[in-house]
Amino acid sequence: MTSYQSGGPAYRDVEAEPLTGNAISPINTSTTTPSWKKYGMGAALIALVGYVTLNTSSPFHNAILSTTTADVPSSHYSVVPTLGKGHHHHHKKSEEEDDETELFDERRRFIVRDFDARSTFSNFLPGVAGVFGKPVWSFYVNRGQGLASFGLASKDFPIMEFNTANKAYQVTPYVGFRTFVQGVRGGHKKKEDGVSFLIEPFSPANSKVEGVEDASKPDRTMYVGTNEMEILEVDDVHGVTTSVNYFVMPEEDFAALVRRTTITNTGDDDLTLSALDGLAKVEPTGGRLQWGLKNIGRTLEGWMGVYHANDDLGLPFYRMSTEPSDTASVKIEKAGHYCISFMDGSDDLLPIVYDTEKVFGFSTTLQEPNGLIKSSIEDIVANPQYGDAKTSSAFAAAQDVKLAPGESVTVTSVYGQAENIEDLPKIAKTITKKHFITDKFQRARDMMNELTSKVETHTANKLFDGTIKQNYLDNSLRGGMPVILGDLDDDARSSNADEDSRLKVYHVFSRIHGDLERDYNDFNIDPTYFSQGPGNYRDVAQNRRNDVVFSPRIGSFVVKQFLSFIQADGYEPLTVQAYAYQIENPNEASRVAALITADVNNSTQTVRNILSGGIFRPGQLFSLFDQLGVTLSVSNQRAIDEIMAIATETPMALYGSGYWADHWEYYLDLIEAYTSIYPDGEESLMYDTELRYFFSTATVKPRSQKYVEDYTFDGKSKHILQLDATIFDTDKVAEQEAFRNVTTGLVANEANWQRTGGPANGRAFTSPAISKLFLLGAMKYSMRDAYGMGVEYEGGRPGWNDAMNGLAGMVGSGMPETFELSELLKYVLSVVKKYQRPLVIPAELGEMVDTVNDALDELLASGYEDSEELSHKVPKELFKYWDTVASARESYRNEVQYYFSGDTVEIAPEDAIDMLTKWFDQVQLGVARAMKIGSRGIDDDGTSGLPPSYFSYNITKWKRTNEKNDKGLPLVNAEAMSVGVFPLFLEAPTRYMKLIVDDQDKMVDMYEKVLKSGLRDDGLKMYYLSADLTGQSYDMGRMMAFAAGWLENQSIWMHMSYKYYLQLIRGKLYEQFYSEMKGGGMLPFMDPKVYGRSLMECSSFIASSAFLDPSVVGRGFLARLSGSTAEFLSIWRLMFIGPNPFVMNDDGDVEMQLIPALPLWLFEDKEAGAEGARDEDGNLIVSYKLFASIMVTYHNTLGTDLFEVEPTSYIVTMTDGSTVEVEGSKIPTETTVKIRKLLGVETIDVYF
What we know:
Helix content is 29%, strand content 23%. Helix 13 packs across helix 15 and helix 13 (462-479) crosses helix 35 (1124-1136).
């Protein structure tokens, strides 16, 4: 807190002390010593200040009110007596208080003490306003007053400008939220009798310096909640405590960020204050502004202005006159941003100071409030302000507030966007209603508790329990949270989405993981009901892995969604969008329109036209209803259920750029999760579900068009690179244009699916799910490299480790994809063996498969066998086989580039089994070769016994094609190759463990080898993403551009580490897994002082011991929205539920069996002093919520670890109070079906 001290009769006539940060002694012209002194308050008590003023049901709050009501003055604002006299001493923590108390407060908010003096971090509020709410996005840092940027939809539409993390750390204290308090201590009758001061809470000029004791510096604390963030400053020098709380307005038809600033008089005498509290720089509406703010910011200000919805200063409206452009089309800006402020207990709006110069004068750095120093808040409000042609502010002005000792006042400010200036009075009337904001704040908390209660868990480690909830939330923010729509009657409510076509699954709250640190991603969060945004394919596929485990009613929805995206060429698009819906029957549209509307303003006809007008999403419907003045006669929920029940659905995606090699690798995880809940649904899903093929606007080039002759880096020789592997196919674009509606100008959804026959006259081609998986396996099998080891990155993009972006240019391949190919072939083979049904595939694929099989027969007939030691030169026999197979693949792709013929061929089960077995065996030979070729790097001679991750191929002999690429470089055909190797990467052993998961001896051996390898960070007791890359070529990609230990270069990439830990528990290496967890490799068991952020929140990476700066080592970067959360939830599932909770009995009926993998210390951890809960018989218990609704309790009668221990009995309690008692390890079919359908089941008690 910076002090701008002054004394005497008028603020503006007294020269202020310079902003030295230490000039905090009051200037007093009298000789009287101030009666107030340095005051302290209990840290735990002060943390309640904001909560007490918000939660009127608090016993503490009621107790204070009951004893001090007479002291509350009657005025236009509310003075809340939050603390009585006598609470003036800091609470010293006893040594007995545990670490959890140190890290989290009573509401499980992470505590960051002296937050602005610690190493920097960024974070965000979830941007969740509920299904029937409109969110804002907001990011915060541990500098200034926290909030660093917020706005609507994307960074292109900011209310506070989006800055990348490194800049946000610098500018947030100045351009962000600020508070200035002009106070007079004592002398309430006449200001001249008191001591005046001007202070800025949370000013960086008065931040503590780590390791330096300075009693004059205020104590500052940040509280990181699930759906809120609060900061607190305790200023003992001036007897002022300031708390600021932020949350997103939930469940309203307007999007807003709420800020509540509470100022408390903690001194012994009265305090009279005026305050400015708000945002130093507010951006107006005016279209997409991000580029302009960064590049032509001064020019943009010419369009800016501040308008007013009333005659005073209470409803400013920040907008541009038009959207800034230099074209013939001019768009007048009607929408605007607003700031509406008031003091608790009053519905009078506070005036807003929007003229930045009135506050800061000509201090263009905004460091010093020069305008305020020479004036007063009252004078600023009374005099003219100007808001044209400059960036304005939004400071709420509270004037002449009188606080007795212990009293506080709260200023609430709501920042958002309105479509028209006329909407502001309505919004103001709503938010100033009594208890509205406090109720909304409580609802924001309750809503998040409801969302995360789906994984409610109760163990002896409460921090672990909280981590599960946080990971579930963050997983949902990246992958989306499924909701069921169309629940119209009991039949629907007792069915899943596969059983009742009226039911639709829609994912809400998702977004691509763009934030202050991930500044390369352009996130989007629709400011609509049912808000969501697009996501990266691999992210969404992984983060939806366990959806069916938490929400069984979605059935096979996620599996069908992603298998639909498989293209004819074996690739997938880059971006997954929300499902779209369409009502094809106009009579049904009319029926529902009449059912859900009150025929006001022709609402029925309007809704009928909307429903019949083309594809839509739920949020878009409600936006249109609002814009067109539709009046509904039913609730929003009933309306959307009626609409969705008659709608057809279609998945949506976008091509993006390039074809990533790993997108298909997550399908088996989705299938495995589905079959663990619906083992009786596998056959129908695989054989009876017809799926389309996605049609992207890009084509993979054949080798002859992407193998390019170029000079090496030193210019001394030439080599062959694989460049521009895909091409934007204008002919495909023309195909899609045939579906453009001449009336609406929109391209119909049918354009996104590959068809049969000629332009626009063929049907969308479909195949059963198992046939699409076979196609995928055949394509990836045909993409194996020349040595038959890795799968080639021939689509121009690498796999999961996208920092190896240069590997595609090096004609590279990856073993992680080979290990996944092995598992895919194994699964397809098992399905064909189990159900003995033929495979029906496109005729074009049949031709390719015949050529591939003939080539394999020829290879086997050649007598080729691998030697004991393999040369890096590719043997001629293998090269010939590779060339033939690759040519067949290219011919197939050419045949299906635009259409399928529509013809199919049938492969008999026995033929499919024979074919798949041969392919599987060839893949295993390739794995064995890879182990021989090995890896090479620092302290790695290739004998570690660990599988390599990547290979490059040097084309040693080539022939020009007499053609050139777009840059004029010669194109070539390869005639000979040699293989290049790389250091170790964690991805290969992680994925290789899938192949040996059922062989515990091999699993233990692999674990020990990884532990002893260069992949182990002994200092942090974690695992590097890669071994030491020193000496590697920069050609491999951006990994080499980063410093060791940073980003992907030899850092701790939490997602891959968690994938590795998941394989340990999958392989039943329980001792090793829990040793890694509690040893600090997983949250929440890391050192909080080192990790630098909440122990419940994952990061993308941790700076490893390879990083040179020891002060950075161990810190987490790139907050939260990481694939780690998907792995953590899979781990939770194996720990608590087991791998296959539903199994088929000998009669073909489904039964339930819960086999957890829980250590005793989660029941009771005596070493950590954590007592466990016990049942009435004294048995230790843990509990968790199954399927988001059924509380399951494990009774550990053995008092031991529960590793693969089968239950001895169950008691299933129904909602009507009846019970079903089961002896044995499995629950019978009748009760099992009720549990899976969530029909009247309350709890399950399981005894071991």
